[in-house]
Amino acid sequence: MNQPYQAPGADVQASTAATYQPRFFASSGRLGRMRYFVYGLGLTLLAYLVVGVVGVIAAAVMGGFQQAQGSTVATLLLGLLAMAAMLFVLVMTVIYVVRRLNDMNLTGWLALLMLVPLVNVILALMLLFVPGSKGANKYGPAPVANSGGVIAAFAISLVVLVAYIGIIAAVAVPAYQDYVNRSQSMMEQMQYTPGDY
Fold first, then answer.
1. What residues of the chain score a pLDDT lower than 50?
2. Torsion over CA of 174, 178, 183 and 188, rounded to 10 degrees?
3. C or N terminus of the chain, fewer CB within 10 Å?
4. Nearest to 96 by CA among 160, 158, 148, 143
5. pLDDT tens across 32-44, in order?
6. Which helix (H) or strand (E) holds 19?
7. DSSP string covering 93-151, please?
8. For residues 97 and 109, what is the distance between their CA atoms, to the nearest angstrom?
9. Phi and psi dihedrals of 102, rounded to 5?
10. From the centroid of its chain, how far is CA 97?
11. How far is 14 from 124, CA to CA, in rounded Å?
12. For residue 124, what pLDDT is reported?
């Protein structure tokens, strides 16, 4: 029955629970912490893959790696491609930073702080660890929950990162210890004695 004095029934819960599916190459929308990490790493790996494949193709076309090293055409081609790939990665990185800031309900202009030394480290840590705002904010609806693929890529990335740091430490620590030992032995040989002069 139609009651003219009844309170209007609005589905408030449905409007605040609106979400959207973030896309890898999208230039707008919000981006959560895990997707920010995975998308940034995926973008970097994609750029390296493109430059590597084109480098191998250019070397094969120029007659092998030995002849391609002396070819200015191949060097110019690879240099231009590397610059284009770096420019693409830079633009997409700025877009990801803006999207991540928007997820925290902050303006994208704060991405300019990435140009300020020391402040950029704090901003990078904020982008990785500060959670985004719950529900919709002034920059749009919240992104959907991370899919299994994003979670798997994040887990694999962390394992590879820890392994990489372990390999670097396994090489760097003995090399540094060798450097310390050699410098100490040099200092002992160069000890000043009063009768030397």
1. none
2. 130
3. N
4. 143
5. 999 999 999 989 8
6. strand 19-20
7. HHHHHHHHHHHTT--GGGGGGGGSTTHHHHHHHHHHHSPPPSS-BTTBSEEPPPPHHHH
8. 10
9. -65, -30
10. 9
11. 33
12. 94
CA distance 55 to 87: 18
Which residues have CB under 8 Å from 40's CB, separation 6+?
93, 96
Query: 173 phi and psi, to 5 degrees?
Result: -65, -50
Given a contact cutoff of 8 angstroms between Cβ atoms, the answer to whether 88 and 47 are in contact is: yes
Amino acid at 149: G
Q: Look at residues 96, 111, 89 and name the one whose alpha carbon lies nearest to residue 32.
A: 96
Greatest pairwise CA separation for the chain in angstroms: 114
Task: State the amino acid at position 127 in one-letter form.
Answer: L
For residue 39, the model assigns a pLDDT of 93
CB 133 within 8 A of CB 32: no
Instruction: Write down the pLDDT at residue 46.
Output: 87
**What is the reported pTM?**
0.71
Q: Please give the single-letter amino acid code of residue 79.
A: G
Structure tokens that stand for 59 in this block: 């070397």
Burial 148-165 (b: 16+ CB within 10 A, else e): eebeebbeebeeeeeeee
Which residue type does 7 have? Answer: A
Find the helix packing angle between 119-129 and 72-103, rounded to 10°.
Answer: 60
Q: How many CB atoms lie within 10 A of CB 28?
A: 13
Residue with tokens 């901003």: 123
